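As a warm-up, study this chain.
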Amino acid sequence: AYSYLTPLNEKEQSLLADLHLEAGAPIKAAPLYEEVLQKKYGRNILQRLVISLYRQDDIDGALKVLDKYKKEAAQSKELLQLQGEIYYGRKQFAPAARAYSKAATLKGKHQGQCWLMAGYAALQGGDLSHAKRYLQKAAGFPKQKKSAEGTLKMVAAQQADN
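Now compare it with the structure written out below.
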């Protein structure tokens, strides 16, 4: 009833959008996030908008938002990873590898996983030289070492066949 009496402020809109997103109603969350984002930029709001569009299978909408805010997205490991995931899911492996490798260059705990995903994407796209380079970087991280080394053997075998 409160929202019918007074307009929601940005924080309240964001909280309502979060509730919709967590309740499995991303179609109701996206317009609220868009409205908040138009009033005031926030990386978390941008990320949640992209997630809400992605969860409602509006992949083109999610990519358009990422493109519109590409400068901001390029500085966010979360947004770059999300972009990589979206492209990978669309089987657009070259842009997926680029997004993951950009995310991997930003400092944090995510780096090894991003190098690994960049390697997988490059491999899926048939770019063996980039796949090898990314997987070698991933192998330098303890959690990704085993997966990266196993995949590097596949890359070496494919390169030997060519």
